[in-house]
Design goal:
Length: about 325
């Protein structure tokens, strides 16, 4: 065999491998975002109750309502008692499910968790949605512009809450041999985003924690079950119209919170790491190509973002002001 023949074979095999990988990815995406609409797992099989943090608005509220619609009783955890009571009433009236409310401010340190543990005692918790999250500021800002106390608040709320809440529910899930923990990360938790330094860093924490947790616990206690025993799912949305994004107009890029939660819950058991919906999966893929890290991290782009004539908000959305 000549040298040219050998090179042709190696080239052919490489192309075939890439095509196979592409075909596999397309199939996984199709299954996760299209087939899942008709091929849903019955979420009640995880357990009677779902716990949702940051449940009173946006994505958390949408998850809580969707979980209730799918037959679970819901524990709503947030900081405003009035909003919690209103949502609990709404869920009871609309879906006839039981609710419990826990008023807590997640910017607090580890001392807030024993009280939450007390409230959750005795409940069969099948699903935990670690959704609560906050940004440092409503515009792109340099790290030193963030007030000192905000640093601890954002870290406590976005990071500490995730392993602490997990620690409260996971032992019983492992004992029962079933459970699901959904962690809401972000597109800016996949790649670093300058001018959102702290927020972006807290979200990569969520992503890594979620992926490692899934690897550690997916097979714990599996005996006859088809689905994972205590599985963890990391959700990495792009833009969703909520208070955090100044309730942006919904379009093919920006999802409504309810639409997002419905589609994201369809992906349960199809993927442990998901963009949540097809539109965001395509945007994530496009951003990887169109906005490579060298460009995202460049001084040029940082200045451009910073000097945008309008105030720019979280994840690049433009505020209405
Ligand atoms: N919106 C997006 O485009 C987007 C994209 C990617 C990722 N995410 C992530 O999705 C999650 C939800 O975001 P969202 O857009 O739905 O936000 P949101 O509309 O601002 O809602 C946040 C929820 O968390 C509660 N909350 C905030 N700070 C809290 C605290 N210190 N203690 C207790 N509860 C607190 C809020 O309660 P109150 O009602 O009392 O304020 C509210 O219920 C976050 O983790 C965020 O990082 C959002």
């Amino acid at each position: 065999m000549s040298f040219t023949d050998a090179l042709t074979i190696i080239g052919g095999l490489t192309v075939a491998l890439y095509l196979l990988r592409l075909a596999w990815r397309c199939w996984c995406g199709f299954r996760q975002y299209v087939l899942s609409e008709h091929w849903q797992v019955d979420l009640r099989t995880y357990g009677q109750w779902a716990v949702v943090t940051g449940a009173t608005s946006g994505i958390g509220k949408a998850y809580a309502s969707e979980l209730a619609r799918r037959g679970l009783d819901v524990v709503l955890v947030s900081r405003s008692e009035e909003k919690l009571r209103m949502l609990a009433k709404e869920i009871k009236e609309e879906y006839g499910r039981k609710t419990r409310i826990i008023r807590v401010d997640f910017t607090g340190s580890y001392s807030i968790y024993p009280a939450i543990a007390e409230e959750l005692r005795g409940l069969e918790i099948g699903i935990l949605v670690n959704n609560v999250g906050m940004t440092c500021s409503d515009h792109f800002s340099y790290f030193l512009e963030i007030p000192e106390q905000k640093i601890t608040q954002v870290i406590n709320c976005n990071m500490l809450s995730v392993p602490q809440m997990t620690r409260l529910v996971l032992p019983h899930m492992v004992e029962r041999g079933t459970g699901l923990i959904i962690n809401i990360s972000s597109q800016v938790g996949i790649r670093p985003q300058p001018l959102l330094a702290l927020y972006s860093a807290t979200k990569i924490f969520v992503t890594y924690f979620s992926q490692c947790l899934h690897a550690e616990y997916k097979s714990k206690g599996i005996t006859v079950q088809v689905k994972d025993a205590a599985a963890s799912q990391c959700v990495v949305p792009c833009m969703v119209s909520t208070n955090m994004t100044n309730n942006l107009k919904v379009n093919c890029f920006v999802k409504s919170a309810s639409g997002f939660a419905r589609e994201a819950l369809n992906t349960v058991s199809h993927s442990s790491y998901t963009s949540g919906c097809l539109s965001h999966a395509l945007q994530n893929a496009a951003l990887t190509v169109l906005l490579p890290d060298w460009l995202r991290m460049s001084t040029f782009l940082i200045r451009k973002l910073r000097n945008h004539p309008k105030v720019t908000n979280y994840e690049g959305s433009v505020c209405k002001e």
